[in-house]
Amino acid sequence: MADIWSEALQGLEPRLDKQTFDMWLRPIRLASIEDDRLRLHAPNRFLKEWFETHYLALVLDEIEGRQGRRFGVELEIVEPAEPAKAPAASSTETSIAQSPAAQPTVTLRRGPEAPTGLHPRYRFDSFIKGASNELAASAAMAASDAPGTRFNPLFIYGGVGLGKTHLLHGIGHELHRKDPSLRIVYLSAEHFMNEFVTAVRNNQFDEFRARYRKDCDCLLIDDIQFIAGRDRTMDEFFHVFNALYEAGKQIVVTSDRVPADMPGMEARLTSRLNWGLVADVQPPDLETRIAIVQAKAERDGMELPAEVCLTIAELVRSNVRELEGALLRVTAFAQLRGVAIDKAFVESVLGKRRVDKTPITIEAVQKAVAGYYSVRISDLKGKRRHRGISRPRMVAMYLCRQLTDSSFPEIGMRFGGKDHSTVINACKRIAALQEDDEELRGAVESLRGQLAS
């Protein structure tokens, strides 16, 4: 059993420097192999997370190259002293664990099974709400309070690492907590497509359709953009959507963009994804980033000075995953060097703070466009459709989307409460018109330069 693991480590050892290998790979132990699944032990949370992030894929690739098959992994935290105490333990779980043949009869979970695939850490109580995600978070909680009625379907979109999947899992956990009998199906769009392909290949349509159309009370689909351009998969998902929607079942979908911006997505499917609420998740603002760092530190049992949390939040602005990764990096280096974490140490690990220009705001864009076209800002926010007003309004919406971090719904709200689809259409129209209209292209570039200066 251990040969698989030791051979892989022996193959990797010459490719890594000795300090890296001894620090991050050598402490990981192989506990057992069950079918195609490796059970690994790490001595602490910090080493576990670092290994998972930086070296797990490398080790699995090495094993696959040697064994000719891919293994899954379960990585657990086991304190180094625990193996010495194991013989004295008398719990049912311990005695059964020493008897592999008896394992299939053991039930460790109490009560109804939680939905498959949901991460235990991704719950509403661990999600940090802020201005950048308030609409999506509130809608997710409302959908779990009254599934199939309010916000159905719920479509959540945004960039990588901003919390879409966290909210999706949170809905599943909350629905299960309130009604364990609900049949909740969570999976990625890629997994949905793979299951569909397998059903086609093995002529198992009835089982596939029963799983998603009849035996499902809530469907949670991650990264729906993956099925765009896959005609048969889109067609099947269209019928699954219709069956669940007509039966009053809750549907929640996430994506990295709005439905209208997905190349290859069928118009009829795009229309249905827009039936309910479309909510976006934006990069977190400073206050939210500070709260995320504090929550992560508290969850991991660390006490960080407020100045340290502020410094990390100021240096890492992109998304939640990078924030948590930055915190892990800082604490890892501090433990390795045996030093206290302060502002200077954080900057030495993550790099000095950048001096950024004042961000461009929607108000600044509206003011610049109104001045360029000699119209009033109130006209840009109004409902008049005269070309002398509608063209500047579309240009302003286009520039807001290009030059600010604001979402389509937010831009629409700041232009007199217009729907996000109006903003999307305006952006598409201005982008298309610039290809042939030199005057418009010149106006947009002039305004862009004025706002950037």
Automatic annotation (TrEMBL):
<keyword id="KW-0446">Lipid-binding</keyword>
<dbReference type="InterPro" id="IPR018312">
    <property type="entry name" value="Chromosome_initiator_DnaA_CS"/>
</dbReference>
<feature type="region of interest" description="Domain I, interacts with DnaA modulators">
    <location>
        <begin position="1"/>
        <end position="82"/>
    </location>
</feature>
<dbReference type="GO" id="GO:0008289">
    <property type="term" value="F:lipid binding"/>
</dbReference>
<comment type="subunit">
    <text>Oligomerizes as a right-handed, spiral filament on DNA at oriC.</text>
</comment>
<protein>
    <recommendedName>
        <fullName>Chromosomal replication initiator protein DnaA</fullName>
    </recommendedName>
</protein>
<dbReference type="InterPro" id="IPR003593">
    <property type="entry name" value="AAA+_ATPase"/>
</dbReference>
<dbReference type="GO" id="GO:0003688">
    <property type="term" value="F:DNA replication origin binding"/>
</dbReference>
<dbReference type="InterPro" id="IPR027417">
    <property type="entry name" value="P-loop_NTPase"/>
</dbReference>
<dbReference type="GO" id="GO:0006275">
    <property type="term" value="P:regulation of DNA replication"/>
</dbReference>
<keyword id="KW-0238">DNA-binding</keyword>
<keyword id="KW-0963">Cytoplasm</keyword>
<feature type="compositionally biased region" description="Low complexity">
    <location>
        <begin position="82"/>
        <end position="95"/>
    </location>
</feature>
<dbReference type="InterPro" id="IPR020591">
    <property type="entry name" value="Chromosome_initiator_DnaA-like"/>
</dbReference>
<dbReference type="Pfam" id="PF11638">
    <property type="entry name" value="DnaA_N"/>
</dbReference>
<feature type="domain" description="Chromosomal replication initiator DnaA C-terminal">
    <location>
        <begin position="361"/>
        <end position="430"/>
    </location>
</feature>
<dbReference type="InterPro" id="IPR038454">
    <property type="entry name" value="DnaA_N_sf"/>
</dbReference>
<dbReference type="InterPro" id="IPR024633">
    <property type="entry name" value="DnaA_N_dom"/>
</dbReference>
<keyword id="KW-0547">Nucleotide-binding</keyword>
<dbReference type="InterPro" id="IPR001957">
    <property type="entry name" value="Chromosome_initiator_DnaA"/>
</dbReference>
<keyword id="KW-0067">ATP-binding</keyword>
<feature type="binding site">
    <location>
        <position position="164"/>
    </location>
    <ligand>
        <name>ATP</name>
    </ligand>
</feature>
<comment type="similarity">
    <text>Belongs to the DnaA family.</text>
</comment>
<feature type="domain" description="AAA+ ATPase">
    <location>
        <begin position="150"/>
        <end position="279"/>
    </location>
</feature>
<dbReference type="Pfam" id="PF00308">
    <property type="entry name" value="Bac_DnaA"/>
</dbReference>
<keyword id="KW-0235">DNA replication</keyword>
<feature type="region of interest" description="Disordered">
    <location>
        <begin position="82"/>
        <end position="119"/>
    </location>
</feature>
<feature type="region of interest" description="Domain IV, binds dsDNA">
    <location>
        <begin position="335"/>
        <end position="453"/>
    </location>
</feature>
<dbReference type="InterPro" id="IPR013317">
    <property type="entry name" value="DnaA_dom"/>
</dbReference>
<feature type="binding site">
    <location>
        <position position="161"/>
    </location>
    <ligand>
        <name>ATP</name>
    </ligand>
</feature>
<dbReference type="GO" id="GO:0006270">
    <property type="term" value="P:DNA replication initiation"/>
</dbReference>
<feature type="compositionally biased region" description="Polar residues">
    <location>
        <begin position="96"/>
        <end position="106"/>
    </location>
</feature>
<dbReference type="GO" id="GO:0005737">
    <property type="term" value="C:cytoplasm"/>
</dbReference>
<dbReference type="GO" id="GO:0005524">
    <property type="term" value="F:ATP binding"/>
</dbReference>
<dbReference type="GO" id="GO:0005886">
    <property type="term" value="C:plasma membrane"/>
</dbReference>
<feature type="binding site">
    <location>
        <position position="165"/>
    </location>
    <ligand>
        <name>ATP</name>
    </ligand>
</feature>
<dbReference type="Pfam" id="PF08299">
    <property type="entry name" value="Bac_DnaA_C"/>
</dbReference>
<feature type="binding site">
    <location>
        <position position="163"/>
    </location>
    <ligand>
        <name>ATP</name>
    </ligand>
</feature>
<comment type="function">
    <text>Plays an essential role in the initiation and regulation of chromosomal replication. ATP-DnaA binds to the origin of replication (oriC) to initiate formation of the DNA replication initiation complex once per cell cycle. Binds the DnaA box (a 9 base pair repeat at the origin) and separates the double-stranded (ds)DNA. Forms a right-handed helical filament on oriC DNA; dsDNA binds to the exterior of the filament while single-stranded (ss)DNA is stabiized in the filament's interior.</text>
</comment>
<dbReference type="InterPro" id="IPR010921">
    <property type="entry name" value="Trp_repressor/repl_initiator"/>
</dbReference>
<dbReference type="InterPro" id="IPR013159">
    <property type="entry name" value="DnaA_C"/>
</dbReference>
